Structure formats: C-alpha cells, structure tokens
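Re: that chain you flagged

S.,

Sorry for the slow reply, it's been a week of failed gels. I finally had a moment to sit down with the sequence you sent. For the record, here it is as I used it:
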Amino acid sequence: MSDGTAEWRRGTQQREEREILNLFADDPDAPFSIHRFVEHGALACGKHPGEWFGPSATARCIQALALSSVAAELRVYINGDGADVYEDRFLSLATADDGCFAPTLILVGIRLGIDRVTPVYWEALKAALQLPQSVGIAGGRPSSSHYFIGVQGDNFFFLDPHQPRAALPRCDDVMQYSAEDIGSCHTRRGKPVVHVTDREPTVENEDEACRSAVYDVETLDEDEDDG
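Prediction finished late last night. Pasting the structure tokens below so you have them in one place:
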C-alpha cells in the first residue's frame, strides 16, 4: 500500500491504486465487496438486502471487515456515543505491536440536526472536509443518502452512490486490470450542492434532491434505526 508520504494523483502509483481497488472488487472473496457488506450486515446487524443500511450498521461493518482483512492493513476506530474521540483509546488501537503507528480510519458518528443541519455546524463541516486526512462525510435519510467529498467556498461536492457502474472483477494479479476497469472506479461527475444557507444553487437546473442534500446529512448515527 502507499505510505502516504506524497500527495496522491491518479496514475502516479498504478500498482498501489490497483491493490486498493482490488479490495473492493465485485467478488465474494474481496474483503470490502458488496457481498461481504451484505453478509455481515445480515449476520451481525440484522440488515438484509432491500432494507435501509443505516450509518451505525455501516460503521460496524467497515470495522469488522477491516479487522478480518490482513491485506487491508487498516484499523478502524468508532467513537460510539457523541462526537468525542479519546486519545488513549485511539492510540491503543492505532499502535501496532512493534510500537509503530498503524493506518487507522476514524468514524465519527453524530447527528447534526433534526430535519436539517443546525447552523452552528456549518463552518465545522466545511473545515472538516478541508482536512488532508478527511475521507468525507456520508449520511442522509433512507433512499436519499450522499457521500460528500469536498467543499469549495459555500458549495459542497458529493458523489451519488446510487449510480450503477460495471462490475469490477477480482484479479490475482492486479496489473491485469485494464484502463477501462480502473476508469470505472473514478468519476468527474461530482456535483456542487447549495450551501446550508438559503442561497440558490450554482448549477443550473439543479433538482430538489441536490438542493436539500446538505440539509439531510446525519453522519454515522441513527442508532434507533439500526436496531
């Protein structure tokens, strides 16, 4: 895997990129395939195909699948109740047996409002997405979830997880992936979303789902829906 010492750009670390994508291949043997998520969700979280797979269940699945995959070389910290991340607990998880720091994903679960994001969180959300270590914000409501990946000015950029793509096969030799295979895992179709103030969106013909998307964000929470 990449050591993270240099800023990543597509095509600059081809083997490392392919190794990461192979972890998410559409194959039951891939550590983070949709098959593994569905299997673990049913067994451990009581979530079955066609049911709303809430943020808390998703976080627990990510943690469990990472723990079961040696190839992923990833540890996952879930904050539990509230937004606090405790340094001692985090360091205990993130420190390897040899004393070195292990790559660790922190999943912070917090409800940001009742029916929309409370204004006090607006600037914090923008700042969080600008952190070099940020992997984005996932959340929403049933059948209307988005994955926010960045911010520019007052516009939030998101990826819509509901757009289907061709299946990515799993390869024993990751260099066998074609350019088309790799390209199917990338997109330039991120959409700016109107800021949580009541401004008009900057994209013409933006639909109501896009205008309300930021209001709907409830990151990694909803324990009452997860059972």
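What I noticed first: The chain has a mean pLDDT of 78.

Talk soon,
D.
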